[in-house]
User: Fold these one by one.
Assistant:
Number 1:
Amino acid sequence: MPVQRLSDAERAAALQGLPGWALRTDGLAISRHFTFADFSAAFGFMARVALIAEKLDHHPEWSNVWNRVEITLTTHDAGGLSARDVAMAREINQLVPAV
Ligand code: H2B
């Protein structure tokens, strides 16, 4: 079954449970910025996220500059935000201290 985009209400509810994540202005993706002590810590985090991505078969759009990582989650197969993005964001949040 194809993955479904979240409705406006589902999106709003999901964001309530995702501290640190913001909805992109077009409503089709969520993103979060992370800052670490140095590059090694940032890259270690990315390695953990990569393992989650493989486990969930869901892959981030991301960038890294030294100690900073920016992650955007959207579901290409759905053309927008789906439950897969929410599940991925929840797992990523478990890797870092609460905000
Ligand atoms: N990641 C993201 N972000 N969106 C997708 O639609 C997606 C994915 N689809 N990872 C998956 C892989 C799909 O291409 C494979 C075949 O399951």
Number 2:
Amino acid sequence: MYQNDTIAAISTALGEGAIGIVRLSGPDAISMANKVFKGKDLAKVDSHTIHYGHVINPKNNHVIDEVMTSVMKGPRSYTMEDIVEINCHGGIIAVQRTLEVVLDQGARMAEPGEYTKRAFLNGRIDLSQAEAVMDLIQAKTDKAMQASVNQLQGSLSSKISVLREEMLQTLAQVEVTIDYPEYDDVEEMSLTQLKETAESVKASIEQLLRQASQGRLFREGINTAIIGRPNVGKSSLLNFLSGVDKAIVTDIEGTTRDTIEEFINIRGVPLRLIDTAGIRQTDEIVEQIGVEKSRQVMEKADLIILILNQAQALNDIDLELLDLTKDQQRIILLNKSDLPTVLDHDQLAKYVDASSIITTSITEESGLDQLEAMIEDRFLGGHLQAADVNYLLNTRHTQLLKQAIEALEEVIDATDMALPVDLIQIDYTRAWDLLGEITGDSVQDELLNKLFSQFCLGK
Ligand code: GDP
């Protein structure tokens, strides 16, 4: 199943760096590289060795760059094909010229993700591992990176394989029972077997989804909404946390009109911060859109930071916000603690548990350490360890798993109704196929192309 052409691309980020790598993969990788490399005969070197020399333009023998060239012979390589990596001096020109002379030798420019695609097509990694490569590249925190590495090593794949194997065995047993109908209760036995397996596989998938929802927090960030009525300090907090003057801080009420998103890393917890317009009743149209957005944002937030101004009494809007967020994961900031206290703490205590209240002065940067500590504690406090984020499911995985659950539920219902076994097998097999799509055991070309095109060039 090896590809018959040889591909080449620049595998490092474009720009000035200490080195830039041109990578070739395919049956002619070594012979093509040999034509542009002077220093050693690459056809004769051992696999997994690196060699000093120069890249030249064979047309005029001009030296393009001084390089180190490594040779990795298939199948012990990333793609399982012969790979040559030419390490040029950084800088755009040398790397591009090197790529050009390699292409002149007949190599084809690689598509984004094509090396990883070949690793998949050649059977070295499965689809969920290929996706893990992409996650690894895009990981925003150490935890997310660790989870991607686990996935790359096949944690999701092996889990799915076990489930599929379990399903296959039951199916085989059912086939056997049907082929040898010497017993009277053949149908009944088959129904019981199918039902039991469907229930057990369904339970495993549900558990996987639960664990992965934790993983999602680390991959996509914890959707965090900073809310509070106008002028309590929402923009100031956002600016402090993100370290960028992106949100506009102002004394005029309601100036943060649109939502601004910012991705930040707080003590290893990735937060996707959404600063929203101050929630208040208003006649102005732009403001209303902002207010409506705030409500929507609040609904999909994993964490809410509700800011109150402790230099003022609680008003109706504060109370409304306290009520709206009461069932959500929330942290309440009593801000402007540098000003005299007006807010009635006893009144507040009726609505909020003291353990989620922090007193802050954003302008004087006090109390913000406690805020960071509380976020760390809530999301990393013992209950969410890297082990729990072993399974990183992307939307594609989640959808397939949910569809598989639906198919299994049909199986369970159908067995309860004692429908004919061959009819039940249709849904059963569909669930099996859906699981197979996660690892790429049953997968269409179109999907593959779409997936790998999301990779960066040269990977
Ligand atoms: P937003 O409307 O909720 O986004 O509030 P802003 O962040 O724009 O802040 C409104 C005003 O309150 C600005 O003048 C800030 O400098 C000020 N402010 C924010 N935090 C504090 C604080 O802790 N103490 C005091 N005294 N003023 C603050």
Number 3:
Amino acid sequence: MAEDLTIIKGTKEEQYRELIPQIKGLLEGETDLIANLANIASALKEQFGWLWVGFYLVRKDELVLGPFQGPVACTRIKKGRGVCGIAWEKAATMIVADVKKFPGHIACSSLSRSEIVVPLINKGEVFGVLDADSAELDAYDQTDKRFLEEIVSFINM
Ligand code: SME
């Protein structure tokens, strides 16, 4: 695996385009899920500097906190609760431009202003979610959705 990350300047799309092959390099030859999630969280945090980025994994009827970068976070989220629990229930990416206007948003950090949650899907089943939080309003758009969905498609359970 590659062990150094090159941080790129440029448009969001350019940043993702340079980051994706590096993430593939990080995952190459490593089959351990936790190790791979940890490196993806780190690579995204290093490149984009978001407030919080990490994973929750499905454990029975709830999501449990997995590898992440950023401030401490709530450890368990029920299906259908918060942005993460809704992304799990719907098996669909959720973009929240203003968390204060999203009913049911779970505020792990009072500094979070916007959020994107992307489900991890294996054989039609959601096994976790990628969650990214920004201190800026309206930080995430269709470009993030497209590239983050591509990144999570590299994750093998
Ligand atoms: N805001 C999330 C909870 C997780 S933290 O942001 C890390 C939610 O509403 O599901």
Number 4:
Amino acid sequence: MIIQPKVRGFICVTAHPTGCAAHIQQQIDYVQHKGSPSGMPKRVLVIGASTGYGLASRIVPAFAGGAATLGIFFERPSENGKPASAGWYNSCAFEKAAHAKGLYAKSINGDAYSEAIKQQTIETIREDLGTVDLVVYSLASPRRTHPTTGVTCKSVLKPIGSSFTAKTVDTDRGVVSDISIEPANEQEIADTVSVMGGEDWEMWISALSEAGVLAPGAKTVAYSYIGPDLTWAIYRNGTIGRAKEDLEASAKRIHNSLSGLGGAAYVSVNKALVTQASSAIPVVPLYISLLYKIMKERGLHEGCIEQVQRLFAERLYNGASPQLDDAGRIRIDDWEMRPEIQAAVAALWPSVTTENLPQISDIVGYREEFLRLFGFGLPGIAYDAEVDPAVPLPCASA
Ligand code: NAD
């Protein structure tokens, strides 16, 4: 079939297999070009490994450090002649490239919040790897079914306390408008914390620890975001921010629980980037479009792969304990949060309109990056040619 992008609001419902493979290869090339820092982990479990920050967290240890990787994700294979999800094609391409280099790479496609997937992961580690020395927790999900209560909670992106009105952009149509969002109620706050907070990360680490599949000195890292006060009402002070506070509190408990093993748990605060998860957040895509323009002009722009490469080489595996902020977090959002970058974005914010959006923001770059997430717009790919949408995952764990 011929696969073209079909954008519906903030998602693209098609994905291109060879385009996704080319996107993976670009990221592998970047990592290999940067070289291999010493002391990289050798056996890595990535939970949420198929797109965005988690995918980059799989590529970096594999292709910079020769690590064996086990990836967990929830993706849709091709069915009835329809394209698979981008994360499926990414993972197929990742495994193929890793195997071609002689690296162990296996994947488990299923609900990471469930007990069954945790047990399947433990069995796979036991049989194939013995132990893991790094666990990256990079889930972004709109819902979670709790493994013990069976209750399904949905996360919401809402302010807390009072309603919030701000500029936002329809990235597909390029229209800037005001959006007003009513505050979340207590149930919505609790549900968002259940989905995106730290409970599941703690459940993963305690299950892995009890099963004895964490190596001495094992590290674990989960990702968070802070950003500027422009976005605080909807992000840091909103429902998702409450979940991130919970994640940060979990990091401290997990850190203590790993002390017997000489291990460590960290939250890394990352840069705002175009991913499937971030494109769903109101206001944030407009901020990202302005941020990209400023950071690209100053040669400071990074995508997921550059962020994670720097996180591993300069923070997690720099030969010493990573430098932490006052709240005990790793900061790899340091370039985004430089005062001169934030001042430049804040200066543009009040004046941005539908009319001047193409000039004063990088909306074009935003859209290109969004489409690349689904394998579109990559150089050298014949998008008008027939392609088989059914691509097998080479090494899915049974
Ligand atoms: P993403 O949407 O690109 O990736 C989400 C991953 O989670 C995918 O691999 C998906 O398959 C997996 N997943 C979702 N539900 C699952 C389930 N039930 N079981 C198994 N796997 C499941 O998201 P992302 O933007 O890379 O976000 C990853 C983390 O990084 C999140 O914690 C997010 O808050 C954080 N973060 C993102 C940004 C950003 O700007 N994108 C910035 C800082 C921090």
